[in-house]
Amino acid sequence: MSREKALWDRGIALFAEGQYSRALECLHALEPSLKDDPRLLSNLGVVYRDSGNLTRAEQYFRRVCAAQPSDPAAHFNLAVTLLRAGKLREGFAEYEWRWQVLQFVPQRRDFPRPLWRGEPIAGRRILLWGEQGAGDGIQFVRYAPLVRNAGGEPVLEVLPHLERLVSWMAGPYSVVNALTAGVEFDLHCPLMSLPERFRTGLNSIPPPARFSIPPGLREKWSARLRTGRTEVGLVWAANPGYGNNAARSISPALLAPITRLPGVQCWGLQVGPAAAETPGGIANLANDLIDFAETGAAIGELDLVITVDTAVAHLAGSLGKPVWVLLSYASDWRWLLDRHDSPWYPGMRLFRQKHPGEWREPLEQVAAELATLR
Fold first, then answer.
1. Are 218 and 299 in contact (CB under 8 A)?
2. Can you give the pTM of this predicted structure?
3. Number of folded domains in the chain?
């Protein structure tokens, strides 16, 4: 094996283990021989980004974009870096390259009507369609009122398990799910392109969507969840269908500092396969959480939600419920860097890993702060 290949393989392996400084040493050692090789520059950018050095990451990704201006992956990497740095306006513009990146190809949609690019809508009916996950839909459906104020007649297309929830959104709005056939519209736009269309910056993020839960459903969950203690909802695992699920998820055994607090009743909002791992001290609600409307109704009767980075964080934030989000070291771009609050959700607090893969410290911090609320 050549020295270059050994350094390359070692650097990639160290990066996968979260040993960013050592990974950078290996990759930088390749610069004299590989010089401006776009693959090396891209890998350096990724390692710097995940280590939290967004300035250096941006520099490397801009070099790749300059060398390969038509490379979608280079622009997408730059987009994610800019967004995480809070440079939302330029970041969302670069994020439009996502449709040419391999991982997003299955989500592309071919419609017989034109894509809306921000031109005057003039009363036309516009399909705003969800992409990626349920959390993304909940986060970005907030742009529907802006589209309406701009003269459009929005039709919201969401995942089936979001349809009932989004139908409760103040408006009202026409809501269909992704399986509905025969929907008529004049224009279309993916939800996550709307921040670019409205030139969103950190100081111009619209408020979250608000969902009005029907009184009967509120009463049902109030009767079940109100015990007279501090009612806390817990989610410990992200969607297993996403590549970084393992990094975002927590072993439920690590929740013991929270579940053992006196005066606190823990309710499991976890659904999917991870719900089968519900530990003692948490009342499992999974069988009754049939969609996000039901989960939202349950959240509405809790005092606090503690969750990993998953759709429940966006749901609780949109409902105006206090929500504490546990974030991995190299967290998603929407949570920015080093902040403990979120410009997307005013009532949200962020508890971050201080070391890659280490959850004990943020969980102990959460338990300590929860103890003061009782």
1. no
2. 0.94
3. 3
